[in-house]
Specification:
248 residues, alpha/beta, Rossmann fold, eight-stranded mixed β-sheet, 11 helices, 42% helix, 22% strand, globular
Amino acid sequence: MTIHKTTERWHSDRLGREVMLARWGHHGQPVLLFPTAGGDAEEIERMWMIRVLHDLIAGGKIKLYSCDSIAGRVLLTREGNTGHQMWMQDQFHRFIRHEVVPAIHMDCKSSDIEVWTAGASIGAFNAAAMVCRFPDVFARAIAMSGTYDLRRFYDAHPSQFTDHFWVSSPLHFVPTLSGPHLDMLQKRFILMPSGEGRAEDIGESWALAHVLGNKGIPNRVDPWGPEWHHDWPTWRTMLPQILTSWTS
């Protein structure tokens, strides 16, 4: 069965540029799959992720969405100064909450359907951050081979990190949470599968798990072992297996 694909483009005032949201499938649980680093909304298709998720999409188990990784692109290309790059990371998350989520809700014809997130590497960072920042709309995350402490990617002295960075980084803002936000987040779940092979650092997942666990937020690190590397073949195996178990 051929999977139906649609794309939508619009100008985001928050990000100051044109953005794209792609969708595959007609029915099922909405899953927002973030690209890696500075990838675009169609990266997951080029990397054969749609192919390995075909049965779940065609069978109406999931409806898959992806958007451009604007903040990752800004950071990788060193657009503007470091303050601008941190601001864009915060704006990107706000763009997801206030532009992408409403677009998903409209597409699903439901104003209250909960969205799952997924992603690998920096995509995992965004997947986990969305659940932690906005547990009112995001219910679960599959954060594969995650990179969670982004400080090393900025050409900045420790004193130059701004509030836009801190409020975007789960490692740093989760310990400050309390009240209704934390109460809601404690009803969510973040899964962190990771290989331990080439270019993998499962220690990043354990560090985030420690922060989440200290605040009573349900999470689990899933070690896959040294034969699984930081690369698409790993993620093409992980994601279908996990989503199949979650939608059975």
